[in-house]
Amino acid sequence: MSTILECKALTKRYGAKEALGGIDLTLETGRIVGLLGPNGSGKTTLIKLACGLLTPTAGEIRIMGEKPSKTTNAAVSYLPERIALPLWMTAAQAMDFYGDFFADFRRDAAEDMLGKLNMERTQTIRTMSKGTREKLQLILTMSRAAELYLLDEPIGGVDPATRDYILKTILTNYSENSTVLISTHLIADVEQALDEVVFLREGAVMLHESVDAIREEKGKSVDELFREVFAC
To answer: What CATH number is attached to the domain comprising 38?
Structure first.
């Protein structure tokens, strides 16, 4: 394994508010990692820094040893929390767009997932439900042959049956040499898919551990540990 993402004293402030406070974190290739924490803990900020959508206030973040840039973004597939495509686009036009924009886009994989979810190629994003929009965005994200997938709340707005399909989609559409970072509140739903977890609280890394170690050493599931650590 090699390092895919590394943070050194990574700090991000919005004015006087500190979203990330000097975190150190290293993620290796070939892992599915849960980025877990309550609202305001810094999860989305970390993901946006990895995409280059934000710049650090201090410290550094590296993707495959480089600062986030056009070069690293060619190997990073990002799923934002909200749909980031024009509402006039149809599902087919969105696939055309991704095919033009990303050299690693696998149109056949996208078409296959679209069919399995019974989604209409000619339906516009504007007329889609929130859940259908999220499915489309996930299909587009996971149809890239990326090295790092950054998924911000990929199952937040869909029903339990669709969550199962989405998790299956994530598990079957990334290579063993890729890394998937999943930010979510729905820990019990994703736990079985995770190799390791990172707990964030108020911009600090509280824990970075493998799921197996948590179960063996603490005798608890990740969901149980999370509820204990973040109890109100």
So the answer is: 3.40.50.300
Distance CA(147)–CA(200), nearest Å, equals 23
Domain count, the chain: 1
What range does the domain containing 209 cover?
3-229
Whether the model pTM is above 0.90: yes
pLDDT tens, position by position, 16-47: 999 999 999 999 999 999 999 988 899 999 99
For residues 118 and 24, give the distance between their C-alpha atoms in angstroms, rounded to a whole number. 43
Instruction: Give the Cβ contact number of residue 54 at 10 Å.
Output: 19
Query: Exposed, middle or buried: residue 109 (CB in 10 Å: 0-12, 13-18, 19+)?
Result: middle
Single-letter residue type at 69: S
Joined tokens for residue 196:
């390791």
